[in-house]
Structures are given as structure tokens and as C-alpha cells.
Amino acid sequence: MGLSDHLKKVQNGLRQGSFTSEASVSQGILLPALNELGWPVFDTSIVVPEFSVENRRVDYALCHPKNKPAVFLEVKNVGLSDGADRQLFEYAFHLGVPMAILTDGQEWSFYLPGEQGRYDERRVYKIDLLERSLDEIEKRLVRYLKYQNVTSGEALKSARSDYQNVSKFRVIANNLPKAWESILQEQDSILLELLAEKVEDLCGYKPDLDVCSRFLDEQINSHGTPRVEKKTVRNISERSTKSSKPSSKKSRTRKVEDYSLTFKDQDFSAGSAREVMTTLFELLAKEDDTFLERFASRKHGRKRRYLAKDKYELYPGRPDLAEDNSVEVVSGWWLGTNYSRKNIQDIIDLALEVSEPQLRSRIKARVH
User: Fold this and answer.
1) What pTM was estimated for this model as a whole?
2) How far apart are CA 108 and CA 103, in angstroms?
3) Using one digit for the tens of pLDDT, what is the confidence trace for 290-299?
4) What are all long-range contacts of 141-144, with beta carbons under 8 Å and residues at least 24 apart?
5) What segment(s) does the record annotate as region Disordered (predicted)?
6) Measured distance CA(314)–CA(327) in Å, rounded
């Protein structure tokens, strides 16, 4: 008949409610499928029914070599397989059987009992014969249950490989929220630029990176995770000096004295965070001719360098930003300036960390 034809027949029978007992599932679904997968179903030393495990019985043991189980198969009535995995795992643990399969005819669950985690976490794959395509069903049954694959060890190898992928995806899923929260809190300049450019695409006005930074801060502080609300957007637009509507209120500007830089007991005036950063780098380079080289050797942003000998290395793939947002602090060294105050404070802190301890104690710089 062929496996595909048998599966079509089973699907029709399931839809018609033809399999009403464990015996009908075994004889009408399981054993014909095993036969099509190459198993000698009439050799009871290889396909062993009612396999004994310490006064209990597993419905079928698929053996290789003879009478040595390689796979345990437990059969239940259609729709009644929930909770049976615990019993199946106990059987497999007693004899160290590496693979176990639980089926009610419609659903097939493939397990690796020896792996870590809850019962459901040790499930490699689950097939519903009425939900999956015939190609997918046939592919999985061949992968895990074909006689030649089981006896050669290829089926177990494939199952373990698939389990590792499932486990990896589970770890990824658990850590995605943490990664997203970390990205928002770090506020990398690339993220801020993407946000600013998207706002510009939508309304024609590009917000300052500090406006974007405040927006993300408010989202995190208000909700724990970013969720845009009209009230928050309105508050930020009111603070932006690039708002399209004139306001009778005084614009909120940062006073010069809010930016501070003290270098070796001397105070320097600055009108912006970028000016504080640039001045500090110029002073450090003048004080220590190895500073810029040592700073450049440190890990910088996720994708960008804060400092480079070629200004186009500061913004890979964005020559427009390199032209408009970089400054040559000394001959041959370029510093990127397209950052929010929070980013700039991080860069300043890194610069102080790189500077000599004796000098570091005599520097104070604040922009955020």
C-alpha cells in the first residue's frame, strides 16, 4: 500500500471516528504503519507486544538486537493520551530505553526520556495526523521510526539533534524579553537613530536623540516594557524644540551650567553634552599621547566605534552621519558625536576608565 496511502486511510478513519479502542488504534493504525516503515511486525522478538517491565507492561517494544528494546511505544484510545507520558517515562527509565513514543492514533509524541527537563520539555516532536500535511507526517515517521534508521542509530541521532534545537529555541524564547529590556536600557545610538528616522518618516519632523532617549526612559519606567501611549507621545512632543506647532509656553532648554567639566582643577565651560565630550578627549589626548590608542582598543558600541582614525568607521554604512556627526579631536583621530546625553555619559565614563588613575581622580564630567 505504501506509507502515504496508509496515512490517508488513517486520516479518513479518524475523521469518521472509526478507531474506538486501543486495540483498533494498534491494529488499524500503528502496526500497519510500522510494517510500511520496514519493521517485521510478525517477528515478536523484534516488535514485542506487551513487553514486561517489573510486573508492568509496555504496549510495544521495538527491539534491536532481538529482545533488547530500542524504542518503547505506548498506545491509548483516541483523545485519551494526556497524562500517559509519566507512565511511559517510568518504563523507559527502568531499562534505559533511549526513545519513547506515545500515540492515540491521531497524535504522536516522540520523547527522549534521558534528557533534562519536565516530561513535555523532553518531547522532541509532536504530530497530529489531522493537522499536519502528509509530507510532514511521513517525513517525521521515517526520520524517527523507520526500521533501518532505528537499527543504525540514525533515528536516535536525529532525535537528539532535533531536541537540542528545541532546547535552544526554548532558551532563546526565555531570554528574548531580557535582551529587549537590556537593549532599551542601554539605548544604543543605532536604536535611537532608527526611532528618530521612523518618526521623521511618519510626520516629516526628526526628533533629537535626547527626545528619543527620554521617550524610551518613560516607557520603561511607566510600563516595564515599551508600549506607546498617546499621553507619553504628547508629553515628549511638547518638550521637543522641533514641534510643528508653536507653543505659548517657554521651551524647555538645558542651561549651560547643567553641563560640567573639570580637568585638573580647572573648570571648562560647555554649551552641550557633545562639547563636554569633545573637550575632554582633546584634553586627555594632550595630557597622554597613548590615550587615544588605548581608548580605541577597548570594546565600544554594539556595531560602531566611538573613536577611529577614519571617520567613516564611526558609522558603518552611513557616510551621511560620518560627514555631519564626527569631529577630529586631534590630527588623525575622529570622534563620533551623534549620541544622546546618556550615550555620551557612557563614552565619558569609558574614557575616564581608560585614563591613568592619578589623572582620573582630578577629572569630573557630567552631562546626564
Assistant:
1) 0.51
2) 4
3) 999 889 877 7
4) 141/3, 141/33, 141/37, 141/108, 142/3, 142/37, 144/99, 144/101, 144/110
5) 226-253
6) 11
